[in-house]
Amino acid sequence: MKTRTGIAAALSVVALCAVVGVTVYAAAAGANGDARTVAAMEGPVTPFTPQATFAGLSPATGDPELESLVQVHPSPGAIVAAAGPFDDRFVLEDLAFDGGSVSGAVRVTSDVSDVLDLEVLAGFYDAKGVLVGNARFVHHLVEDATHAEPPEERLEFTIAVPADVSGRAVAASIGVPVLVNE
Amino acid sequence: MKRQTSVLTSTSLVTALVASVILTGLGGAALTASADDGNDRTRATNVIYLLGDGMGRTHVTAARERYYGAAGKLAMETLPAQGFVSTYAVEKLSGQPGAADFKPNPVTDSASAATAWSSGVKTYNAALGVDAKGAVVPTMMELAKKAGYRTGNVSTAEITDATPAGQMSHALARGCQGPVYSDAACQDLSITGAALPTSDVRVTPIADQIARNGTADVILGGGLSRFDAADETALKGQGYSVLGSIAGQSTATKADLASASGAKVFGLFNKGNLTVEKTKQDNPSSVQAQEPTLSEMASKAIDLLQKGKSNGNKDDRSGKGGKGFYLQIEGALIDKRSHANDAAQTLGEMKAFDDAVAVVKDFAKRDGNTLVIVTADHECAGFNIIEKGTFTNAEAGTPPANVDSGNTANNSTPTRPSNSKDAARSTGIVNGAGAADPKNFGPATFRTPTDAAGVVDGSPDAGLWLTYLSGNHTGADVPVFATGPGSEQLQGTVDNTALFGIVGRALRVV
Lengths: 182, 510
Prior knowledge:
heterodimer; A: mainly beta; Immunoglobulin-like; four-stranded mixed β-sheet; three-stranded antiparallel β-sheet; 10% helix; globular; B: alpha/beta; Alkaline Phosphatase, subunit A; 15 helices; 17 strands; disordered N terminus
């Protein structure tokens, strides 16, 4: 192991000598999940590391939520829309709630070549219109070399009532906290 | 642990050698010829990079024939250096060209292409400011900013969309736009193996990054919905003049833009993408008609960057009171309307983009030391011009078929026994008589300046017949037009990663 490490180190020195003055390509690689930075530059400028932290920005701690879920109080049997940041980009269609799940479709009305990401958040309410739980539908387009499907403007969803509020949920709300379409 | 670190470091350095050779190769021999004397002819005071998203060679030709006639020229076509750019992407976890693990993908998306010219590396579709293995790579706009240039980023898309974001953010997935983080939109376990902590820049929503990293001094475009009140606070804390209200989700207007001043300006004119020009022209009293055109945003961005360029910079080599600026301008809706196969709006967006090119060209002529590059990230939808009165295979009663199973690649017997339209699939011109049939595969027709008086769009008598192959990107090389210091490097064909070196050398940041 010692010898192999030594050879690797020697190769490294050769590598460094070869690149000085031409290109600085510094890779600080770690295990999966570690931050890595590669500075790909040429010429006399000093290596540059892009800003990786942002003062005052609190990292996300969970799934995206909508404040509006607690602000609506639907009557038993009702399904209402919960306000979100992208409400001008879609319409909700064919909404239905049977006590066990809420279903429907989001039809994107702005530019659509692909819907890259969509999260539909469902709030569930008791007979007094109090939010008792929520669940979500998540769509993420996996990018690949081919797009076998035509542009998708309408995505259907079914969101089951969480088990811990089953039987108590008598109404629902629907909101969209995540929508990325192009 | 110590030994592991040593091996890792050694591996990294060997990788560094390979990568360095690759990067050097990407830009050709000129990459080794960086000069810091500031006096050679490839040195520019300013660089303006214009990007017609989805603009293939046929988009240019069709717009020329539509608006200026076959013998005319778009503004971009009058630039002296002209060539083509190859645009391929790579698969996830691919090495760079020349590496043993290099795995090309012939058709790029806007994110991979933006990373190619912004950072000089090939990456996978959806990646921004990271290479194909997920490592963060600096962008040209970051380098320019660090070197003391003023910087601007203008787009008709959401400013968090791939092309503008490619200069101002680092993200594993282009869908991580904000305003909130989500695992599905932001993480990519096929790259990282395990979920990254949400504090990692690569999974930080792009809007949050743009509002806090100060990479661009002037930011104009769409996408107000991606930003929230905390972003507005962060922007104002850095000295940005914010047009409209982010906290109130009130979009800025062209009047706001006209009166904007200051060294740092942030203006978003639509909650999503800006409105297509044809729609604004057809509805002049609408709210959307109050959005500025790309030309107006380009002109104002240049003005703001010019006025602010003596912004305390002591490393001034321009002789004009500042170091100069680097500005990216995107006509994004060419692509979006090409995806939709809407030829009228596609052409309208081409005209709007070319009008912005004309503004930039005029500035560059006055300035005398500005490198202007006009190109695209990829072609979209296989846009084509067919002969007047003819039809495509999609309309044919008997589309070409392979009848020689022994020679599947090159048929040696006739494959088109008849050559006639299928009446069910070709009911007329899609922007004319056939518009009512959603199954129609017919072309869209447009009058040209030399058509006889009375000939209208959608008429079989119109001179310009346009078709689309698909609703998606293609792998065709895209055109590039350029003028100014170093533009001669764009004569011929280059790869999109070479644009990084050409711009970087002009600005002396690589």
